[in-house]
């Protein structure tokens, strides 16, 4: 049995990837969750079952919060809780796009203490612990240092371009997109992009693992108002997301209409 939570998450993520690939590009059964929650497939549910069996089998006293499981309020009283997105980027997965990930984290007292984001198609495994470095396939991550919003490369959706979100209109950043929100955080930690933002509610399972990886790489990860991210809450959402180096983060806050400063 793995000795540390990070070892456990890492082993489980690899197994999740192997199972997901057995469904990928094979037209798995899929349906819409309704209520704007997007699609889910038999692959999502199979990976969720595998992860719950492996993770909770090893740590039966931990709570469980997953996008694909009914919420159990018992997690709120647990000393530690797994926060899991079995397949982050289900639409991409169903479209044969390899930009989906498995995002696994452990929260203690509202903070993420271990996290793994694994992309099986691309052979990428990002990981971190609260007292260790952020790693990609075992090597330290080095984010960018850009301080100016003008021309910054930002991973976000078209919704962020709405002028209503900004003071004096949206800044002239260069917008790009990746289907997995967890991967977006890791790409910024890797220095491939300058920032990622979300100006709508973000589910904890999408950002838990990636936020720790970003922070351990030296980035700042907050909600859109600059407040620290907290996890394993009764309503598991944050009020948006800003992830970038500290200088660029300050520049975002100064331009966002949501910031009270």
Automatic annotation (TrEMBL):
Where is Mg(2+) annotated to bind? 67, 85, 87-88, 206
Q: Which InterPro entries match?
A: Inositol_monoP_metal-BS (IPR020583), Inositol_monophosphatase-like (IPR000760)
Q: Which GO terms describe its molecular function?
A: inositol monophosphate 1-phosphatase activity; metal ion binding
- List, alphabetically, the Pfam families matched: Inositol_P
Q: Which UniProt keywords apply?
A: Hydrolase, Magnesium, Metal-binding
Reading the lineage from the top rank, the first entry is: Bacteria
For whether the record's keyword set contains Hydrolase, the answer is yes
Q: Name one GO biological process term.
A: inositol metabolic process
Q: Which cofactors must be present for this protein to function?
A: Mg(2+)
Family, per the entry?
Belongs to the inositol monophosphatase superfamily.
> What protein name is recorded for this chain?
Inositol monophosphatase
């Amino acid at each position: 049995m793995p000795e540390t939570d990070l070892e456990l998450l890492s082993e489980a993520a690899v197994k999740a990837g192997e199972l997901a690939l057995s469904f990928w590009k094979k037209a798995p059964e899929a349906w819409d969750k309704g209520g704007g929650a997007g699609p889910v497939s038999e692959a999502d549910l199979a990976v969720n079952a595998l992860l719950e069996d492996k993770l909770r089998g090893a740590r039966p006293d931990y709570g469980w919060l997953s996008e694909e499981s009914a919420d159990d309020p018992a997690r709120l009283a647990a000393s530690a809780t797994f926060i899991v997105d079995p397949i982050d980027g289900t639409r991409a997965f169903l479209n044969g796009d390899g930009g989906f990930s498995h995002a696994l984290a452990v929260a203690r007292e509202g903070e993420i203490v271990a996290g793994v984001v694994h992309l099986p198609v691309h052979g990428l495994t990002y990981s971190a612990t609260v007292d260790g470095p952020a790693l990609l396939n075992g090597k330290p991550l080095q984010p960018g240092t850009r301080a100016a919003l003008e021309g910054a490369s930002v991973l976000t959706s078209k919704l962020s371009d709405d002028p209503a979100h900004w003071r004096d209109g949206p800044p002239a950043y260069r917008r790009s997109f990746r289907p997995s929100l967890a991967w977006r955080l890791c790409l910024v930690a890797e220095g491939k992009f300058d920032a990622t933002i979300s100006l709508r509610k973000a589910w904890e399972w999408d950002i838990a693992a990636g936020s720790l990886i970003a922070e351990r790489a030296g980035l700042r990860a907050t909600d859109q108002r600059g407040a620290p991210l907290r996890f394993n809450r009764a309503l598991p959402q944050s009020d948006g997301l800003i992830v970038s180096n500290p200088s660029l983060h300050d520049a975002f806050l100064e331009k966002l209409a949501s910031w009270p400063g």
